[in-house]
Amino acid sequence: MSEAFYSDGLRFECRRCSACCRGEPGFVFLTRPDVLRILKRLGIDFRTFYADYCRSTDTGLGMALSLKEKPGYDCVFWGEEGCSIYEDRPVQCSTYPFWASILESRSRWDEESAYCPGVGKGELRGGASIEERLERRRAEKILIFEYEEDPQAADIDGEARRGQ
Ligand code: SF4
Ligand code: SF4
């Protein structure tokens, strides 16, 4: 099998422009570890988190949790100082732009620079660290509830307590 085009590394440095956090509609899907981490950071229960910060999206397989958007399509966690939960942001955010869909080809990676000014700039990220991000994204599945399931009845708070 031929080596991935990124095996010798790719340049990326976040310019903190916030283009990936605001101004356009999109979805930030949440994994179970994302939710547990954010609950701990905010010190709130899952019912409150669900009501104030989440929306449900039909994936065809069930209802996935994603972050709400403010009017104008800013992420619910974006503010004048940038991401208010930066250290605990969802894995979808922390692994960007090293997503499988963007790394499918060199041309697709290059195209992403039209959207993200950090792509192709700054620090060289090695192939191993890119693979590590891909694996993290693969390993952490999006949290999806059955159609008939009430997300607010899920024992996420119990999991959060057991994880403390
Ligand atoms: S679009 Fe790129 S450079 Fe801008 S904040 Fe997002 S990751 Fe950083
Ligand atoms: S959670 Fe933070 S990093 Fe992710 S889209 Fe929202 S503001 Fe941006």
Please give the number of β-strands: 7
Mean pLDDT level = 94
Report the uncertain regions.
none
- Sheet with most strands: 3 strands, antiparallel
What does it look like?
The protein is globular. Helix 1 (32-42) crosses helix 6 (156-162). It has 164 residues and is α+β, with helices and mostly antiparallel strands. The strands form three sheets. It has a three-stranded antiparallel sheet with strand order 2-3-7. Strands 1-6 form a two-stranded antiparallel sheet. A two-stranded antiparallel ribbon has the order 4-5. Strand 2 (54-58) and strand 3 form a beta hairpin. It has six helices and seven strands, in the order E-H-H-E-E-E-E-H-H-E-H-E-H. The model has no long low-confidence stretch (mean pLDDT 94). The chain has helices spanning 32-42, 46-53, 91-94, 106-112, 127-139, 156-162; strands at residues 10-12, 54-58, 63-67, 78-79, 82-83, 119-125, 144-145. Bound molecules: iron/sulfur cluster (2 copies). Residues 14-20, 96, 116-118 line the site of one iron/sulfur cluster (SF4). The site of one iron/sulfur cluster has 11 residues, from loops.
Can you give keywords for this protein?
164 residues, alpha+beta, 3-stranded antiparallel beta sheet, two-stranded antiparallel ribbon, 6 helices, 7 strands, globular, binds iron/sulfur cluster
